[in-house]
Amino acid sequence: MRTQSTRIAVVLSIATVLLAGLPADASTAFLLKSAGGPLLAKNFDGEAAAGMLVVNQRGVAKTALVGANQSPVRWTSRYGSVTFNQQGREFPFGGMNETGLAMESLWLTETRYPEPGDRQTIGVLQWIQYCLDSFRRVDDVVASASELAITGSATFHFLACDATASCAVIEFLDGKLVERNTRTLPLPVLSDDTYATSLDYLNRTLGYGGEPVTPEGIGSLPRFARAANGAHAARSKPGDSPITDAFAVLADVAQPKSTRWSIVYELTTGRINFRTAELPAIRSIDLSRLDLDCTADRLMLDLATEITGDVTSHLTPYTPEADRRVVEAASSAASAPAPGDVERIIAYPEGLLCTFSQ
């Protein structure tokens, strides 16, 4: 790997361009507690179907891509992870690390990130990778949301859960961090309205007496209510498989024209189960069977690869060319980036350094 020290501000603007085409009403996530351990489930809804599964390694020294006048976060990854990426390696929408910490982003139009001040800065998608690289527990994710300046024009909020079934919803509203953890999070569910608005809608839908009404439709608030009700029903009367139960809830809140990926993370076993709209058979990957040291080959899977079952032994070596194909396919659903922009953002991982002896 070679050292990368230039074009930081340019690359930040590229990421903004590539994210510009994401829909303003997308995705649903929830935690399902089961006898076999907690499951974090998520539908990714968007305009583009392209995506890749990326294996991220321990021992990689990284510097956040930020503006020229900002102080970037610097860190070395402590934990390996598997992430789902569409905007380039190191810029995931979500994933899970080897300790069972999983984190997912969902769109939130109301998001306004705090001013950086004198804090170290990191872009919003790279912050997800930073957390998976660095932490075992949700409390540490929440702390980092306060300690670091998170920036970007793409507006997200987040659901993070760990292997103890502790969860947090993290939002940035009116320029301030708003977080709810296990003590203030009655339901570990999230869609694309603020958590407070969603919870109020659910309470009004349930009413005070009589049978609860399950709202229909693909809007954010009905999806939140159905996901909350579905997760509760699956926990109260589990079926033969909690994985099947979780996918059934995801199917109920899917948007027919825009749900691209459905993912179920097993937080205590290290397995990730997923399917796509184009390949609906459930596939899986086992983190415990991966060599996560940075001296090993970097691996990935294009989500369009026609392979079924356990894909752990069928991953292919990561290449910038494969990354570029996914990024270009995703950006074509939005607006075409300027010449050379994709190459610059794809070059970023090539400048990262493995700190272990080769």
What does this protein look like?
The chain is of the alpha+beta class. It has a single domain, classed as Penicillin V Acylase, Chain A (4-Layer Sandwich), CATH 3.60.60. 26% of the residues lie in helices and 27% in strands. The chain is built from 8 helices and 21 strands. The protein has helices at residues 8-19, 124-134, 138-147, 195-206, 220-236, 242-252, 320-331, 341-347; strands at residues 28-32, 39-45, 52-56, 60-63, 74-76, 81-85, 92-97, 102-107, 121-123, 149-151, 156-161, 167-173, 176-180, 189-190, 259-266, 271-276, 283-286, 299-302, 309-310, 316-317, 353-354. The strands form 4 sheets. The protein has a 9-stranded antiparallel sheet, with helices on one face. The chain has a 7-stranded mixed sheet with strand order 14-1-2-15-16-17-19, with helices on one face. Helix 4 (195-206) crosses helix 5, helix 5 packs antiparallel against helix 6 (242-252) and helix 7 (320-331) packs across helix 8 (341-347). It is globular. The relative contact order is 0.21.
In short:
Helices cover 26% and strands 27% of the residues.
Count of DSSP-assigned helices: 8
**What's the oligomerization state?**
single chain
Structural class: alpha+beta
Instruction: Give the percentage of residues in beta strands.
Output: 25-35%
Number of domains: 1
